[in-house]
Give the backbone structure.
Amino acid sequence: MEAEIRAILAAAVRDPAGPLFEIVIRVVHSCRVGATADGYNGIPYEQLPIDAVEVRPEQEEHLARSRRTGAPHEVDIEPTWAVEAALDPRALVDDGRSRTGLSIRVIGLAPSCPAVDGDPRGAVLVVYLVPAAPPPAGRWLVVTAWLAGRHQRRIYWEEPDE
Amino acid sequence: MSDTDLDQTLRVLAEEAESAREDTVPPTARRKTRRAKDPSQVYSVRIPVDRLEQLRRAAAMRGSAPSALIRELVVAFLDEQPMEPTISSAAEALEVLRKVVLGQAHPISQ
């Protein structure tokens, strides 16, 4: 059964604009699995295990933002920075308005990433993750990442720990 | 799911995320309260294809997975590296040197 589900998912992602992709998204939503407003697979975001984070080689290329987009204002994100931010113990986590409900958004600190405003504590990053294994396994893959905006940085630093 | 399908899934999700990029934090965002247990970073290492089978066999002989063998070897190597000098160890070394220079201690006995 699992093999069939994997085959359907694989076929769906090959055509993100196609009807099968839309059906898969609806099924995911109706089953209340994946990312919802409150948590992932029913686990509240604040308790969601994020223990091991991997950047696949293809995503390393994706994180090289200025080279990929040709936009000089884009900052290339080192894979280690994305991992640091994802593992930040006081990161903010939500669904990142994911339409598919497969990924989550983490706003966390990467101490080894130079901050644009010269903050010696490092840079706050936005990192999207997708499970490498169904939560609560705690293993995630980096989807994409970028430097957090001014508002996100302010919320990250000002929001009290829960 | 094959590696190709996984990479395709990641591409689709990355496009989805990039298209929703904005400088906001919804009220539903939650601060982590659960600390990672032994947090680890998965590090991609390119191994020459002609050595992969050798690696798999070596791991199988030890009854472990190739990734576990790689981790074991790297950690063992790091454990063998000399400790980083600290302020206290530097001060201690200076004190020994001072005594040697003053003739209060034999260099070999320290």
Remarks:
- The helical segments of chain A are 2-13, 19-30, 57-63, 65-69, 79-87, 150-158.
- Residues 114 and 134 of chain A are 33 Å apart (CA to CA).
- Residues 1-31 of chain A form one domain.
